[in-house]
Amino acid sequence: MSEHPNYITPAGFAALRAEYDQLFGDERPKLVEVISWAAGNGDRSENGDYIYGRQRLRQIDRRLGWLAKRMKAAKVIDPAAAPDRSRVFFGATVTIADEDDKNRTMTLVGDDEADAGKGRVGWGSPLARALRGSAIGDLRRVTLPAGEKEYEVMAITYPDA
User: Fold this and answer.
1) Helix 48-73 crosses helix 28-39 at what angle (to 10 degrees)?
2) Which of 3, 12, 33, 59 is deepest in the core (most CB within 10 A)?
């Protein structure tokens, strides 16, 4: 585990919890039932239900272990309760403009709930680290895989309480 806190929004934590509950309370018991039935059918070496059921069970158990660790290390932070809304902190929705005046809007969320395609950038990403603490009008330089870019912070918003 990292020495850095695992920040996460309440919605992100709820999503992790829902996945854990679904796997543990629904999918895993059904799979155990199928494996038990398949084991009773005799020769297990050529029994596809048994072999693939055991593989899937191991995958589910690994995922459950990972989810349990992430939830235990999670520090839930509600962005709506941000005391200083004039600067970029966890949970802020930020609009930035690059050197070509192309605007991009993103929300800084926990690394476990990041999805760049939906505009959710992980708190530990290079872009989020560069934007931390910035205010409207600040210029921030970021080293990305495509090279170094400079962004200007255009707008900062937080969800309402």
Assistant:
1) 150
2) 12
Distance CA 131, CA 145 (A): 17
CATH number of the domain located at residue range(s) 79-157 in this protein: 3.10.50.30
CA-based angle 57:59:63, to the nearest 5?
Answer: 115
Give SS3 for 137: coil
**3-state secondary structure (DSSP) of residue 144:** strand
Backbone angles phi, psi at 62, to 5 degrees: -65, -45
Q: Among 156, 149, 160, 119, which residue's Cα sits nearest to residue 135?
A: 156
Nearest to 151 by CA among 110, 92, 93, 101: 101
Residue 14 tokens, joined? 């709820």
- Number of helical (H) and strand (E) elements in the chain, helices listed first: 4, 7
pLDDT tens-digit series, residues 40-57: 877 777 788 888 999 999
Q: Under CATH, which number does the domain 6-76 receive?
A: 1.10.287.180
Q: Which residues contact 109 (CB under 8 A, 6 or more apart)?
A: 8, 9, 12, 90, 91, 120, 121, 122, 123
Rounded to two decimals, the pTM is: 0.81
